[in-house]
Structure formats: C-alpha cells, structure tokens
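User: Here's a structure from my thesis project, written as structure tokens. My advisor, Dr. K., wants to see whether a designed sequence matches the one we expressed. Can you design one independently, without my sequence as a hint?
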C-alpha cells in the first residue's frame, strides 16, 4: 500500500505560508476538476514567486500547470511546461557541477535542498512526458519513459521523496494503461493494471491525492473490464470508484464512472439502463469539456437512437461524436464512428449514401492517420466501406454539441436493436 503522501508542494525547504496555502488550494481545485480556477490561481502566483526568486516554488507551479494542461488535452501547454522545468533544472545542475560559478553566489538553497529539488521535478517532468506520449498513442515512448521514472535516482534518491515517487509511478502506470485501452491494446495493459493494484492494495489513507488515484484507477480498470467482456467484474470497481468520488464531491469523476456503467449496460443489452446512465453522466462531462468522454456519450446517444429506429437523430448525434474525435485526432475512434454513421444510411436503405460517406480514396483514408500499432484495423475499414473525411462545408464539422443531453428515446421494441454495431 502506498504510504501517506507528502503534498506535492511540501518541500524540505522553508516555504512562504501564503504561497504554500495557495498551492494546496490549486491542487484541491485540480482534483475536483475545476481546472480553470486552478490555472488562474497558479498563474497569479507566478509574479509573486518570481519577485521572491524562489525557483523551487516556480517549478511546482509549472508542474501543476503541466498536469492541468495534460488532462484538458492542451498538449502545447504540457510541452511548454516541460521545457521550462528542464531549463531551470539544467541551470541548477550546472551550478552543482561547478560549470556556472557566476550564478553560484545567487543561490539561496543548500546543496541537499538543490539535490532534492532536482530529483522531485525531474520525476514530475518525466511524468508529464509519459502522459504526453501516451495521449498521442506513442506507447513505446511512454513505456520507455515509465522505465526511466521507475529507475530514477534509485536507490540513492532522497528518502523523503520515496512516497511521492511510488505514487507518481502508479499514476503513470494508470495513464499508460488507459491510453493502451483507448487504442484497443488491452492485452498490453494487463501487466500495468496488475502492478497498479499491487501498489494500491489496502483501504488507502483517505487523503485527496490517494483517493483521486484510486478513483482514476478504478474507473480505468472498470472500463478495461467492460471492453474485454468482464461485465460482472467491472461493476464493483465502478461502484467503489463512484462512491469514493461522491464522498469528495467530485462530480466529474462520478459522472465518468456512470459512463462506464452505461457502456456495460449497453454491452449487456440493457438499453433502458444504458440510456438512464449516459443521460445522468453527460451534463457534468460536457460542463468540464472532456472532449473524448463527450464523444463517447454522443456515441451511445446515437446507438440508442439507432436501436429505436430514430435514424435522423442517430446521424446527428454520431456527427457530434465524430467532430470531437476529429478535434482530438483519435484515428481509431474516427474510424469507428465513420462506420457507425455509414450504418445509419444502410438502415435507411440508402446504400449509395452509405458508400459515398464511407468509401474514400486512399489519400483521405491516410489522412485519418491510423498509427502503426492500429494497422490491423485497416482491412476492416476497407471491408466495411473504408473511412471518410467530411467534405468542405459539411455542417457536422462545425456543429457544436449542446451542454444538455438530447431527449430520451422511446423504449419501444425495435427490430433494428439486434443490429448494434460497435
């Protein structure tokens, strides 16, 4: 079990109480998915920290900002945060090695404090790089970064950072495992999940950081179970994650567990429960602008519409899902949503429209950009009409998803409900 964590900003050096309190509040806001308020608070601290000439605190601000940008898919911001962290750390390494005697007199930290700062924020930067690689589907790079993070400064690193290190490694494993599942690489994620739950064995210490990690892991693993057909195993993981999230008032985290439970209900053929759960989950997910999960909600809205023969509604809802996935550049999900939209035309009996929508010349298919790890999906794309890129002027490429969920579909039986395509 992970030991009780030191706060991410709690360094061995003396910290201004006001700044420390604001850093703790920013962390609290981030865990509650209020990234906008957390970002504004962190940015407001930067001038004060610069004036005080506290590089250790500036590194903490940059690390927290990097995490905010990562969860909000603002990847340019993550890259900039990592660059600035490395620039600062490189300067201190040069000072410690005697290469910058001109700056040595300006340093107010002891050698031990510098070494701890270098260790802490090198690891934080590694975590951000791992998350960035995983988000882009660069799983080999993420795996390499994870190995570097696991081995960093062991066994000679500061003992005070051992708990933070284990927590950061576990978080990175969850991020990598979830990204693998996003790309249908479930088998590769199994060793990561095993190590995650070996580390999280036990009830936890009740801290926000510990509970947040457990909610993230439980939700991710619950989704893994649903997508690999282990529906019975998924339910308790998702229920526990939801209960822990609601105990802290984390509405987005609770909504994400509801989305995974909706996915499980749909897989089990329980359309009414799936509809109830996805409608309950959508408002919070849309409010917090989680584009990938917003798309998944619209996917299920569309599938439910198909199952009751509301094909016009289905096409509109699937169009919302496609737009968000195109904005995120998710090739596998773009491929799948195009197949779903072509099936709407097929169920209408309009095979020419289905072919026009789905069959695209090679350059358009290449523009979707299936990465090397997903090439095994390409024959399926060709067999099921291929992939399609919206033509200029396609209204679906400009339509905005509403914040409120669409009206519920009628629960009347439908002969098309047996034709669900996922």
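Assistant: Designed independently from the structure alone:
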């Amino acid at each position: 079990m992970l030991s009780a964590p030191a706060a991410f900003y709690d360094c061995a050096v003396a910290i201004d109480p006001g700044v420390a309190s604001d850093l703790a509040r920013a962390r609290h806001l981030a865990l509650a998915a209020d990234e906008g308020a957390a970002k504004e608070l962190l940015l407001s601290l930067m001038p004060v920290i610069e004036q005080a000439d506290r590089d250790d605190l500036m590194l903490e601000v940059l690390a927290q900002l990097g995490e905010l940008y990562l969860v909000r898919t603002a990847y340019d911001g993550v890259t900039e945060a990592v660059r600035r962290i490395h620039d600062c750390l490189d300067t201190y390494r040069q000072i410690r090695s005697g290469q910058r005697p001109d700056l040595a007199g300006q340093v107010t930290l002891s050698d031990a404090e510098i070494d701890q700062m270098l260790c802490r924020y090198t690891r934080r930067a590694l975590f951000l790089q791992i998350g960035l690689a995983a988000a882009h589907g660069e799983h080999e790079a993420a795996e390499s970064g994870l190995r570097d993070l696991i081995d960093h400064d062991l066994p000679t690193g500061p003992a005070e950072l051992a708990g933070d290190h284990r927590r950061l490694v576990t978080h990175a494993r969850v991020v990598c495992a979830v990204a693998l599942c996003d790309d249908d690489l479930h088998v590769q994620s199994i060793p990561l999940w095993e190590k995650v739950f070996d580390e999280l064995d036990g009830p936890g210490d009740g801290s926000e950081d510990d509970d947040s990690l457990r909610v993230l892991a439980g939700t991710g693993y619950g989704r893994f179970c649903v997508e690999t057909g282990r529906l019975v195993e998924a339910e308790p993981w998702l229920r526990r994650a939801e209960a822990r999230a609601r105990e802290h008032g984390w509405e987005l985290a609770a909504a994400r567990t509801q989305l995974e439970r909706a996915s499980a209900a749909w897989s089990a053929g329980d359309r009414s429960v799936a509809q109830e759960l996805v409608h309950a989950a959508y408002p919070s997910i849309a409010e917090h602008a989680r584009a990938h999960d917003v798309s998944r909600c619209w996917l299920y809205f569309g599938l439910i519409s198909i199952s009751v023969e509301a094909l016009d509604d289905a096409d509109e809802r699937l169009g919302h899902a496609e737009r968000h996935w195109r904005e995120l550049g998710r090739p596998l999900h773009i491929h799948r949503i195009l197949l779903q939209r072509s099936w709407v035309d097929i169920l209408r009996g309009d095979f020419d429209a289905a072919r026009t929508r789905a069959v695209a010349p090679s350059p358009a298919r290449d523009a979707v950009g299936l990465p090397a790890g997903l090439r095994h999906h390409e024959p399926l794309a060709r067999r099921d009409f291929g992939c399609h890129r919206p033509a200029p002027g396609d209204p679906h490429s400009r339509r905005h998803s509403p914040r409120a969920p669409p009206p519920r579909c009628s629960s009347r039986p439908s002969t098309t409900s047996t034709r669900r395509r996922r």
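When you compare it with your expressed construct, this may help: Confidence is low (pLDDT under 50) at residues 3-14, 360-369, 372-400, 411-422.
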